[in-house]
């Protein structure tokens, strides 16, 4: 293991070492918490680990207690260096509540000039709302999501027969076009009135440079009617998880029949991958959207509604000043 940063902290008479995580640490990181115990089996880290560590804006650290990887922390810097997003954090049960995530967070943000620290989580997680109530974090945005399930074989068969659609307006959007959309005021007022776009659980401000971070090797962006009030922009990312192939689809804009074309294109992209077993589509949308409309569209593709790890996402933010003031350490 390459240790490019390390420090020792004495805590509860135990020696805690903070190490920079590299791709060589994959097995040790995955062993911290069994994937079945995170996000109801839809943990993305085992599949995303190498991709995330290859990204220039990502840093990951582990707290090593008595020689064992006890806690993992990953940060992703977005918004032209202004915001640090924390994601995929986990602590082995044996070491929970000792402040290990706190140590790793302090290690990541010290001596940096981030304005904000943001995180998204499931709104059913009590700890998140406790932090909001206590004034430690501010709620920025909430989105509804619904999970839909089918099998890879059924999805392929439906898409190749009854569900076949010829898109008339929906088309793929590349990184450069996405960058332009993120800075087009008219488009943004309609699609992202809160000033944020959440993709694959990561909140981004509406800044051109975020386009290259949003579009990873797993991302497909589809747009339709982008010049008028019926515009739709959707993002999809897929992840191999213990529970099956999960595809996160975020929907922004006008909810109408054209959305079926978007879903069709995202699902076609998905079945071009090798799929066996279950397919779980998690569709994210604005809170005022009629979720039954989305559910009925999904039914056309043979996807049945199910509940896996909640139905609402919450994005919260704090500042380094507030974080350091409130930190228990
Ligand atoms: C969340 C988790 C990483 C906390 O690890 P930890 O080392 O016990 O954390 P610490 O001891 O440093 O601090 C505990 C803090 O985490 C908060 N916390 C606990 N569960 C949380 C959760 N699911 N999401 C966000 N915060 C959580 C606690 O409220 C506490 O906050 P406080 O200091 O304001 O009281 C750990 O409980 C875990 O592995 N959970 C399962 C994976 C998961 O859901 N991760 C969230 C990724 S967004």
UniProtKB/TrEMBL annotation:
Any single Pfam family the record assigns to this protein: Hisat_C
Protein origin, superkingdom: Eukaryota
All residue ranges annotated as the Histidine N-acetyltransferase C-terminal domain in the record: 170-285
Protein name: Histidine N-acetyltransferase C-terminal domain-containing protein
Organism: Mytilus coruscus (Sea mussel)
């Amino acid at each position: 293991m390459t240790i490019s940063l390390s420090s020792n902290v004495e805590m509860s008479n135990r020696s805690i070492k903070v190490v920079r995580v590299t791709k060589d640490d994959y097995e040790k990181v995955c062993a911290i918490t069994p994937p079945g115990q995170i996000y109801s089996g839809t943990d993305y880290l085992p599949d995303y680990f190498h991709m995330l560590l290859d990204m220039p804006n990502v840093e990951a650290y582990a707290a090593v207690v008595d020689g064992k990887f006890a806690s993992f922390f990953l940060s992703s810097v977005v918004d032209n260096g202004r915001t640090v997003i924390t994601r995929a954090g986990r602590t082995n049960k044996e070491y929970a509540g000792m402040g290990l995530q706190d140590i790793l967070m302090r290690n990541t943000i010290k001596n940096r000039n981030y304005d904000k620290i943001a995180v998204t989580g499931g709104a059913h997680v009590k700890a998140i709302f406790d932090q909001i109530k206590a004034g430690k974090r501010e709620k920025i945005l909430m989105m509804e999501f619904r999970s839909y399930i089918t099998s890879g074989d059924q999805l392929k068969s439906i898409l190749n027969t009854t569900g076949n659609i010829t898109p008339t307006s929906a088309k793929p959007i590349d990184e450069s076009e996405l960058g332009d959309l993120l800075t087009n005021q008219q488009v943004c007022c309609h699609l992202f009135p809160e000033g944020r776009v959440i993709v694959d659980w990561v909140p981004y401000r509406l800044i051109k440079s975020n386009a290259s971070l949003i579009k990873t090797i797993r991302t497909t962006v589809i747009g339709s009617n982008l010049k008028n009030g019926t515009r739709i922009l959707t993002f999809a990312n897929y992840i191999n998880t213990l529970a099956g192939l999960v595809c996160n689809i975020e929907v922004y804009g006008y909810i109408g029949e054209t959305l079926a074309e978007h879903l069709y294109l995202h699902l076609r992209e998905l079945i071009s991958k090798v799929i066996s077993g279950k397919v779980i589509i998690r569709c994210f949308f604005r809170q005022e959207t009629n979720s039954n409309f989305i559910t009925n569209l999904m039914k056309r593709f043979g996807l049945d509604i199910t509940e896996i790890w909640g139905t609402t996402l919450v994005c919260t933010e704090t500042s380094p000043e507030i974080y350091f003031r409130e930190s228990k350490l």
